[in-house]
Amino acid sequence: MSHTQTGGPILSVAGVSGGYGGADILHGIDMTVGPHEIVGIVGPNGAGKSTALKAIFGLVQVRGGAIRFENRDITGWAPNRIVRCGIGYVPQVDNVFREMTVAENLEMGAFLRRHGLDEALERVYTLFPDLVEKRRKAAGSLSGGQRQMVAFGRALMLDPQLLLLDEPTAGLSPRYREQIFQIVRDVRAAGVAVLLVEQHAKQALAFCDRAYVLASGRNRAEGTGPGLVADREIAQMFLGG
Amino acid sequence: MDLLSFVNFYLIPGIVLGAIYALGAIGITLVFGVLRFAHLAHGDMATLGAFLALALVTGLGLNPWVALPFAMAATAVIAVTLHWLFYEHLRRRSAILTVIASLGVALMLRAVVQVIWGADSQSYVGGITRPESYFGIRIKDRELWTLGATVALVIGLQLFLTFTRWGKAMRAMSDNPDLARLSGIDTRLTTALTWTIIGLLCAAAGFFLGINTELKPLMGWYMLLPMFAAAILGGVGRIEGAILGGMVIGIAEECSVLFLPAEYKSALAFVILLIMLAVRPTGLLRGKVL
User: Fold this and answer.
1) A89-101: per-residue pLDDT in tens?
2) Chain A residues with CB-CB distance to B29 below 8 A
């Protein structure tokens, strides 16, 4: 698979297996993300899509394989160490501090940052201008779309090279869904690679540079977004017809 | 009874008692909000703080108000140590285990106080203090100091939680502990900081109760129910709620002797709590995280 940029992938996942407790959910998955790429993970329910993201971020025990980020082996690292080395993670649910203001949410994203807080805030507000006037509002009082902006913004405060998004459009109406995809494009335009899990496979594939189809914790297919949608067999088996 | 005697004999003592309950209730609300369990050792930790101040007063001859900050600091260290010894390893288990562990800690602390200081009542200063009169309102110096120190502690705590990096980290951990961890917030340090503040507030509450009444090994244990009642009444997780709840319980207890036999005074907190849980279980101000 060729990358949109030269210089090889920033993230490579090779033969990773693991899961919660005793049972493995992932059975040797492989994937890569290049710089400035938007890569999707799609597949049926229970395919291990979210688990794959969590394994990369150190939230799920990895029992085999290796995860490399920027030429460092980060397999088995704790999340607070991974967040320092340039990966941001946005969980699917409960991804903002509800009772805290928008500005405080962003500040907590930069908790590890000793300097340059104002510059980081400035960058996030430039990316999400809607948040500027809401910055003193409690994050829990915002609309679904704006709340996702806060969640993305919090994860971007440490200036990551890669953002992991777990079903960013879950529970949002189709109108908001398009808004979120636009935000993801804006994030990429700001120089951040994105690896995202998506339930609405077809819509997601239409805008991802590349995507992986997972099923039962294994790689089933990969390719460019439009290419996968055009593949009748894949579409019928895994993408809901 | 005229208004002035009501103020002097019921309202002012009620407000002073309310301030003491409020300090305890704030601590209970902090444990519940950040660490998610009901801290049954809260009262006995307050007793220990009060007796540590007594040790400085009798041992070194310090003025009680000078001894207070040292006793607060020592209680904070003890609170953090108790957390590491007894609660930390239960973190991943069901919260009820930590609650029961805190009951064990309560019994231990009480036993330590009884072994070291004995079972008799003691006081920081001997003799009787006469209240000063301000335009007919009679208030003792130590009551004024108690109210002033309580206000200062509460304002300090609010400023800390609102404006400092670590204060915000405490609120973040109370709001969403998983997300706090994902954001790189050191939850172990935040927990230790929370216990530090709880220790400070506990010692202050115990000291104020001791200086306004007397020191008894069971004083904190008897304060536990009104403090919990105050925290729940105000809405668990809300500092302003704990203050409001403390004031309501304190004033209600002092005024209850107007229409109830004095023996029922301490049952009143229980009655208020029951009514509150039946009518408005979220508390006067709706409970939330910090």
Assistant:
1) 999 989 999 999 9
2) none
3-state secondary structure of A8: coil
- Residue A160 DSSP class: -
Q: Domain residues of chain A, as ranges?
A: 11-238
Question: What ipTM was predicted for this assembly?
Answer: 0.86
First-to-last alpha carbon distance for chain B, in angstroms, is 42
CATH number for the domain running over B3-124+136-279: 1.10.3470
Chosen for mutation from A108, A141, A165 (greatest number of chain B CBs closer than 10 Å) is A108
Q: Which residues contact A168 (CB under 8 A, 6 or more apart)?
A: A90, A92, A148, A152, A180, A184, A196, A198
Whole-prediction pTM: 0.88
Tell me if A31 sits within 8 A of A52, measured CB to CB. yes
Give contacts of A160 with chain B, Cβ < 8 Å.
none
Question: Is there a contact between B183 and A95 if contact means CB atoms under 8 Å apart?
Answer: no
Task: Search chain A and give the residue with CA nearest B165.
Answer: A111
Nearest CA in chain A to B179: A95
Test B182 with A83 for CB contact under 8 angstroms.
yes
Longest dimension (CA), chain A: 52
Domain boundaries along the sequence of chain B: 3-124+136-279
CA distances from B261 to A24, A125, B3 (A): 66, 63, 22
Look at domain A11-238 and name its CATH class: alpha beta
